């Protein structure tokens, strides 16, 4: 009995010792199912750049596990399922994802890509980085949908400008037309006055505007001497 | 005994000094000749006419490519010897004879009427294409009222997988200019049809022009308060903004660093002379018209000197402003180039960030080249040189619509700067258009093309509508190529011929003695020795030299034009193609007909007199 327990303990110890080694062999640079990640913290954050250390690496693995959970809609993925290797000072490293059910099986590249694409925004935000500064080499960022307004903005501005200009042109044309008509009417009225005055003095052909004829004065009454 | 060609009947054709004085007192407030409301309107209109797009996009390029600060020397010398005398001559003769350009030349001698007709043709050609540039400016202005400027990023392709390939290969600003604005065809022969958005902008440009000239100088005089002063305000705002940007001072230093060896190059003097000449808008007939609306005793000598000084100052000021922005752009490009190279090095050699910076880039590159030469070769690193970026000198529409718009996208609050810049360009161009159209309308009236009973509004309206319809050539797909054609041939050689004939006509046909007496009558003192020498010998000689060299250059050069061809090998570099054969006919019409109008009309009148 004691021998059996010892054997089991030795086997467990061997397994525990061997598992990381096994995992390490799964993760290799240029692995068929692995992706290379490149992080440029100083470019993104400048003075507020943080140091890349083991804790940040832990956060990365946790975020990747989150992405896998979200994609497969299960709760089986854990930090241990994300294996990282070949870290450089640039800060770049390779990672692979192993299946929670079978530790020797790697999740295929395409699925990892889809999981990352789905949660890319969340992964970026966890590190205060962008698509350009947190690069998954081989996974291209999805392009943002362009905002297409119904009427192009330039047509609106054009409409305003051309409306104002045509209104101004019409106003100026109308005002000059009114001015001309007023001037014409003014000249016509002057002419009318002249005619009226001439009309008043003619009746039966005799011009009543004649000179006073002294031959018809009334001072006969005063000279009957 | 001064040289004076026989000119019988001159006394009968012109008003004597006594008649002019009588006209002056009678005409106060009445009469059918328009008058300026005040001196300010006249000065602003002339300044607006002279200061145009050329001051902003031709002078800085010439300055930078011909030895920087050293270019000022030929420019200022020729300004004084060529620009000021010609300007004074046009002002004085217009004020004295009180007619538009056609009237003035027919009065001096009936055989000289061809000069007036040639002026009219040239003004017409230039009005046609100049307003198309205004349409382009309006298009960019309308598009500036958006948060992200449309030329700051490439649009996505049809299935949203990537950027449009034409844009990716060139740049967003190039793509917006050649594809979304012009929709340029690869060849002048393919006309590509009318581009509806440009037609709308052309109509709006002509409509704005019409409303400003609807009643002649009555409305123009009010419009110039805005169009002539706003550019200076905007230039000052840009100067302040530009000086606070990184790299602006390197641009200004590059512009003004003198290279005195350029002064020995005859092209420098030729270009300076041509720039002074075209910048003053002489020989268009517009200045003669504007000056004829003045009172007889206006001091035209002072006006000429003031306007020349303002024009010269504006050229230098605009060049400074433009080069602060170009310096900023060049520094930005240089930083991006260097940053790109640094990133490539960091990524290839897995060095931590911050190990390679701009200051130690050269050392690191050298040491890496020593240890891993093959790797470095394979990287194809670009050479980044600030001076190369600065001397990517661009002029003309390329400066305004490609280089400057790109620089604006890099500035914070880009839409504001874009709107300001294009309003400034629009005002500069509109005030020049006032003079161009004046040079077309007044000769048409003098020729009696429109019945005298028609109101002014209808004559200007009909002219604008007809010019708009003919201007539809320039809003086709190949419109840009037509515009360069008109610009190179319609607006260059004929003007030089007209200006030369003007000088000879006034000095030797009208008579320098009579002209001196007229000026003494108008402003109170005889023109001094400087004017005598320049009018009689120096300026005509300079005109002749420039004309001969220009003519020889134009005639001997192989006619090539640059096209935007996405299928060419060196895309995005513009592909140079030779013109098709039928273009030569067009060139002859553009340059030949105005030039031949001068002797042609003289011969025609001669024949009529003999018959």
Automatic annotation (TrEMBL), chain A:
Record's keyword annotation contains Nuclease: no
Transmembrane spans: 154-178
Signal peptide: 1-23
Record keywords, A-Z: Cell membrane, Glycoprotein, Membrane, Phosphoprotein, Signal, Transmembrane, Transmembrane helix
GO terms, biological process: positive regulation of amino acid transport
Annotated compartments: Cell membrane
Annotated membrane topology: Single-pass type I membrane protein
Cellular component GO terms, alphabetical: extracellular exosome; plasma membrane
Annotated InterPro entries: Collectrin, Collectrin_dom
Domain Collectrin-like: 31-225
Keyword Signal: yes
Pfam family, one: Collectrin
PANTHER family reported in the protein's UniProt record: COLLECTRIN
Name of the protein described by the UniProt record: Collectrin, amino acid transport regulator
Gene: LOC109898004
Automatic annotation (TrEMBL), chain B:
Signal peptide positions on this chain: none
Binding sites annotated in the UniProt record for Na(+): 48, 51, 55, 279, 311, 428, 432
Membrane topology field: Multi-pass membrane protein
PROSITE patterns, sorted: NA_NEUROTRAN_SYMP_1, NA_NEUROTRAN_SYMP_3
Pfam families to which the protein is assigned, alphabetical: SNF (PF00209)
Location of the protein in the cell: Membrane
Family the UniProt entry places it in: Belongs to the sodium:neurotransmitter symporter (SNF) (TC 2.A.22) family.
SUPFAM superfamilies named among the record's database cross-references: SNF-like
InterPro entries listed in its UniProt record: Na/ntran_symport (IPR000175), Neutral_aa_SLC6 (IPR002438), SNS_sf (IPR037272)
Listed GO CC annotations: brush border membrane
Upper lineage: Eukaryota, Metazoa, Chordata, Craniata, Vertebrata
Domain of life: Eukaryota
Keywords: Glycoprotein, Membrane, Metal-binding, Sodium, Symport, Transmembrane, Transmembrane helix, Transport
Membrane-spanning parts: 42-59, 71-91, 111-142, 196-217, 229-256, 276-293, 305-326, 416-437, 458-477, 489-512, 533-552, 581-604
GO biological process: sodium ion transmembrane transport
A single GO molecular function term of this UniProt record: symporter activity
Protein name listed in UniProt: Transporter
Natural source organism: Oncorhynchus kisutch
